Amino acid sequence: MKLNVNGRVQDVDAEPEMPLLWVLRDVMGMEGTKYGCGIAQCGACTVHVDGEAVRSCVTPVGQLEGRKIVTIEGLGGGRGLHPVQKAWLEQSVPQCGYCQSGMIMATAALLAKNPKPTDEDIEKGVTNLCRCGTYGRVRKAIHSLGGQKVDGAPKAVQAPNGQTLA
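The chain above was modelled as a monomer; its predicted structure follows.
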């Protein structure tokens, strides 16, 4: 089958019922998307499918032909870090970092639809789990973006310290 992953259409040899997570990691060698629980609860495996945050551990790859898949490796669109990734670094969000690629993907999808979410919007839109408990820093990073458009094309980000991040 042909999959559009990070803007590149590629032939993939996989059974249609194989979860996208394993196609990305084992077939395509893209290890940024993580395995956490295998039952779509933790969110470590979150990717975008046609702009929506999707748990790849339970999404059969056969349903994705002709759709646009974006992983953490492609979030910046080949133009550097995405604004959410920049905010994560500026706010020192990761602790162990294992869940963070999924958390970033969920956040980017939320901000593409709602550029200035409230705390309640964040709680509803970013349901990923973090065993290290970085939720306060996640929320701070999201709010630091201050309503900027973050739809995949990296924009300059004004960090809380006044520094412009290109």
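Strands lie at 2-5, 8-11, 46-49, 52-55, 68-70, 157-158, 164-165.
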